Each structure stands twice: as C-alpha cells, then as structure tokens.
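Aggregate trends can hide what the representation actually does to any particular protein. For completeness, the protein is quoted in full, as a sequence line and a line of structure tokens.
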Amino acid sequence: MQMTETARSDSLSALELCVGAGGLALAASQAGFDRITAVDVYGPACETLRKNKAAGVRHVRDWTITEADIRDIDFTAHAGIDLLSGGPPCQPFSFGGKRHGRNDEREMFPEFIRAVREAKPRAFVIENVKGLLCRATLPYFNYIIQQLQLPDHTREKREKWKEHRARLERLYTGGKGEGTQYRVIFQILNGANYGVPQRRERVFIVGVRADLGLEYNFPLPTHSAESLWRDMWRTGEYWERHEVPKSARPEAPAAILARLDKDCNTASKPWRTVRDAIQGLPFVGMGRTCHTFHNHFFNDGARVYKGHDGSSLDAPAKTIKAGRNGVPGGENMVRLDDGTVRYFTVRECARLQTFPDEWAFDGSWCGCMRQIGNAVPVTLGEVVAAPLAASLRELANRSTSPRL
C-alpha cells in the first residue's frame, strides 16, 4: 500500500470491525496504531464514536467512522493495512445467551475471515467470550483458527464445514498451503490480571502474517490477588489509602491468611478493586445527576437475586454484562459499605472497563450499558496490541532504513 502524502513512514493503520463503543479501537490507538477506520452497524454505538470525535477527544478525533454492515464491505479496499481487529458478536457463544453458535444469524466469524483474506493485514487481533472454548463449540473454534491460518483456501461448493476443516488440517500439517498464511495463537485472559478492575475473562486470537517473520507472545500477568491481599491484610496500605477506619475494615479471611503465610508470589501489582476504580467520582443518590462527569447519574431499580448480589467494593467487579434490552436482572450492581445495593452508574461502568473519563456515551441508560457491556476493556486491549505495534513499527523502520 502506498503511503499518502500526510501519512508518516512509521504510521500504523488499523481496521476495526464491530467496533461498538470503541474499546478495542481505543486500545489500538493508545498502543500506537494512529490511522483507524472503525466500522459498526449499530447506530447508537457509532453515534458515541461521532460524539467523541466531534468533541476532539484524543485518539478518536482522527478516526474514519463508518456505519455499515460488515457483510456489505469490500475489504480489498483496505489491502495492506497493519492491523485488523475487532470482536464478532459474542451472543452466539455466550453462556448468557441461547448458544446457537455457527447457526446464529449474528455469527460474524466468517466475515472476519473474509476480511483477513481480502485485506491481508500484517496482523490481526480478535476478541470474544471464553464460551467459544467450551466442549460443544470447540470443534467449530478449531475450524475458525484453521481458516485464519490459511484464509485463501475457502470452502468449496457442496463441501461441508467439517470436510473443509479436515482439508485445511491436511494442507497445514503437510506444509502445502498456498497464498497468504498466518501464524495464529490464542489465549483466555482475565482483565483483573492486567490492571482492569473487573474479573472479565475473554479469549483473544492473535495472528501475524507468516512472511513477516515477526514473533509474538501474550503478555504475562502484571497484577494478582495475592498482592491485593497483602496490601489489605498484611500492610494495611489498601485501607489506609482509601481512609477506611480500622473499625470498618472486614476481618481477614482465614483461608487468605493461610495462603499469604505460604511462599506465594506478591511481586506483582495488586488487583484493582471497585473502590480503586470509582475513587474520586461524586456520590450520586436517588434522583441525582452529576454534571462534572459524563454519564454519571443514578438509576433506580436494582434488585438482589439468588447468586446475583452485586460486586464488592473491595475486589475487582464481576463481569459487566449487556443484554439485548439493557442490563440483565441482578447484574452490574455494587454492594455498598452499608450492605445496600444499587446499579453502577454508566460512568462507573466505563471506569470498570477502563475507558477514560472524557469518553462520553450516547443514548439511554440501557443503551449506554449495552455499549459498555459489549466492549473490550481498553487497558486489556492495549496490553495485547502494544507488542504488535512495536514489532510492526520496527519492521517498517528496518524496511525504510538506507543500506550502508
């Protein structure tokens, strides 16, 4: 791909599909991909992106935002991009849905595979729910991986998908694949282990084009529960930082103290908690709205159900979820110090997903919650994308450096 007159030689391009509220695209921007084309069919999510772009929010102000169905896009127009990224709709595989898998009309992995085949990106990052790796859908997941490895070997007419999978296996193991090929790896990552104040497990698929010779590995965890427990139950630093008096601190669980007494690794940073994440936000009670922060207002109706009693202030939040019509019953709630529960505000959920405070969400409370619940935590996405950006920029610099 020829560089435009305004693009720098070390500029990195990215195409983000099913961008939603922009979590993974924002992560890619923060990681170093500075020319982003963001695509989504969901109008309210695109309006969120346009709203932030119009406000001049850092990173998004230079994005190209396209509201379109990815099934209607000719990806050859994006040939030569550095990164293809995105999260196909997770509902076909989510434990919270009906799990129709490849038979669900919202299943968009075939379109992502087509995008890889047509655009031939130097690398790609795809995110989805860990339900993809359960026993029922694992064969289809393996089929997805094999198609991403050899995207030019498409399914033939009247060829069943399992027959296609077997043919791809033979080609790959026999080294007889033709056309563009990718080295593909995947791993389930828990956001809490990387500084996200939320226990959110997602599978990430990363591929690099085989001809580039780039190496990649998933980042090792940087945060741990043991380090949080140490700050709570050994040094007391956590409670002191949040000015929680000793009389209000919970008693240290015996099981946790036993683990801390063992030679466990506490060299990592502590897990970030809900209290850490929402620190500094004004309290909003019944009928109150804070105008200092975007989307920070009270929403009534939180109810406790069996197994759904809200997130503790002093642990990473439970997974922020999004239902078709808003927040599922008993989800996205916080349990306060006095034992009562309330819904997180939209801004609090945004912080739990590590969106910056200047990032505003457009729409109703339910609509905003849907956007946030479907998003990739920005911090986690950046951790995954940053090594790719560094390697691709180094590759670009090597190819443009004059030979001595």
About this structure: Residues 229-267 form one domain. The two ends are 26 Å apart (CA to CA).
